[in-house]
């Protein structure tokens, strides 16, 4: 030991000191051993719980992400359904509109026909009435003219001839 | 500086040196080589661990990634608690670097058998065992909180020196000096004392007796890293908030 120590002190350059007692190797080994033994337990536990916590958090986050994705997909499906529904409604509405258009047009056509017929009827009735009135008037005028002219033209002589003619006809 | 056990001590047992350094000359500066060596080791460890943790990023973290995410969460909560929900985010890297560097430094000093490697002068130990490291970290913290205050409040930052009353102006100014001082000396003192106690006990009774102190040392090391990071974050938060100007909780 003394020799080693002399070597250590007298040496002027860098070197390695193998004196186990002087370098405190045994105590250091024990301390390191104790530290590793207890530190491992403590640190292992701490790190394990930390790791578990992180894992848990990540799992939770992933679960939430999946839920969100599922909800998104569902809502997208709903959206697509709603769009399809809207499309369908639009189509039926268009079909209905076309049908209504047809119906209205047909109705209008029949109405026009009917009105035209009514108008024609009306017209002929008026014509008839006017004609009838005209005939009546003409007849009245004629009778009036006859009544005016008759006294001057119906002389006794003519009356006699007429009566005779009538008798002759009766007697015939 | 300090020679805890004089070199004239009979060379029967061993020798304990404090204040002996492996000096390197860089551009006319004498720097403490052993601190650099262990700092590089700590930096390498941190970079390597970060690299391994982010090499294959999984959705459900396992192994190293899980561990480092846990550490990040811890640091983030720390920064959030001290700086506040609104402003903490840009300061997480700074606070986290402080915490991780100090923590790994302290624990490397307590767990890695540095004494296996023999140096021409001085010995390898935790980087935070050297006052230069802790002063550097504390000054960085000072710069950080000045920057935070000025960038947030502009020249209004100076108003905090006369709050709550102008009479406290000298004390408030003094605070800017005591903060880095206390930060650096607290860390340095704790780590050095811990390593010294362990070293002395190892000298006296090499086996088993130092064990409780070593485990206690692990505990204090972790606590010191936490304290340093927490205080740094608290100073930054304080600089941004001002003295009771706004009531945050």
Task: Tell me the radius of gyration of chain A.
Answer: 68 Å
- What's the assembly state of these chains? heterodimer
**Element pattern of chain B in H and E:** EEHHHEHHH
Question: How would you state the average pLDDT of chain B, rounded?
Answer: 83
Task: Write up this protein.
The complex is a heterodimer of chains A (172) and B (249). With 172 residues, chain A is mostly helical. Chain A has a domain at 12-113. Chain A is built from three helices and one strand, in the order αβαα. Chain A has helices at 2-10, 25-153, 156-171; one strand spanning 15-16. With 249 residues, chain B is mainly alpha-helical. Chain B has helices at 33-55, 63-83, 92-111, 131-153, 169-204, 210-241, and strands spanning 23-26, 29-32, 117-118. Residues 1-13 and 243-249 of chain B have low confidence and may be disordered. Chains A and B meet through α1, β1 and α2 of A and α2, β3 and α6 of B. β1 (15-16) of chain A pairs antiparallel with β3 of chain B.
Q: What is the gist of this entry?
A:
Helix content of chain A is 90%, strand content 1%. Chain A has 172 residues and is an all-alpha fold.
List the topology elements.
The complex is a heterodimer of chains A (172) and B (249).
Chain A: H1 2-10, E1 15-16, H2 25-153, H3 156-171
Chain B: E1 23-26, E2 29-32, H1 33-55, H2 63-83, H3 92-111, E3 117-118, H4 131-153, H5 169-204, H6 210-241
Antiparallel strand pairs in B: 1-2
Helix pairs in contact in B: 1-2, 1-3, 2-3, 2-6, 3-6, 4-5, 4-6, 5-6
Which features would summarize this protein structure in a list?
heterodimer; A: 172 residues; mainly alpha; 3 helices; 90% helix; disordered N terminus; B: 249 residues; two-stranded antiparallel ribbon; globular; disordered C terminus
């Amino acid at each position: 030991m003394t020799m080693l120590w002399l070597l250590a002190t007298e040496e002027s350059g860098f070197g390695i000191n193998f004196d186990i007692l002087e370098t405190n190797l045994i105590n250091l080994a024990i301390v390191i051993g104790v530290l590793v033994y207890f530190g491992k337990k403590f640190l292992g536990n701490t790190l394990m719980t930390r790791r578990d916590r992180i894992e848990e958090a990540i799992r939770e986050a992933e679960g939430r992400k999946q839920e969100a994705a599922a909800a998104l997909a569902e809502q997208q499906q709903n959206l697509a359904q709603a769009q399809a529904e809207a499309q369908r409604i639009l189509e039926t509405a268009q079909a209905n509109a076309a049908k209504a258009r047809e119906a209205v047009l047909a109705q209008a056509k029949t109405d026009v026909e009917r009105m035209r017929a009514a108008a024609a009827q009306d017209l002929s009735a008026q014509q008839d009435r006017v004609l009838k009135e005209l005939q009546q008037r003409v007849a009245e005028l004629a009778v009036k003219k006859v009544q005016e002219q008759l006294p001057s033209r119906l002389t006794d002589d003519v009356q006699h001839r007429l009566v005779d003619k009538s008798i002759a006809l009766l007697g015939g | 500086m300090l020679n805890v056990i004089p070199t004239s001590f009979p060379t029967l047992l061993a020798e304990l040196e404090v204040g002996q350094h492996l000096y390197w000359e860089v551009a006319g500066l004498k720097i403490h080589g052993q601190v650099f060596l262990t700092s590089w080791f700590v930096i390498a460890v941190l970079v390597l661990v970060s690299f391994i943790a982010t090499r294959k990023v999984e959705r459900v973290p396992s192994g190293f990634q899980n561990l480092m995410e846990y550490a990040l969460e811890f640091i983030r909560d720390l920064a959030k608690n001290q700086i506040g929900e609104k402003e903490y985010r840009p300061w997480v890297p700074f606070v986290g670097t402080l915490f991780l560097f100090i923590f790994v430094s302290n624990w490397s000093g307590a767990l890695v058998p540095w004494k296996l490697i023999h140096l021409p002068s001085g010995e390898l130990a935790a980087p935070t065992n050297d006052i230069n490291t802790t002063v550097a970290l504390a000054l960085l913290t000072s710069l950080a909180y000045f920057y935070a205050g000025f960038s947030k409040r502009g020249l209004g930052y100076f108003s905090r020196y006369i709050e709550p009353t102008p009479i406290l102006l000298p004390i408030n100014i003094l605070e800017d000096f005591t903060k880095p001082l206390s930060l650096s000396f607290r860390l340095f003192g704790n780590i050095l004392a811990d390593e010294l106690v362990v070293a002395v006990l190892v000298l006296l009774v090499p086996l088993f007796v130092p064990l409780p102190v070593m485990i206690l040392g692990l505990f204090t090391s972790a606590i010191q890293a936490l304290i340093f990071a927490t205080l740094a974050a608290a100073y930054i938060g304080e600089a941004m908030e001002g003295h009771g100007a706004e009531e945050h909780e």
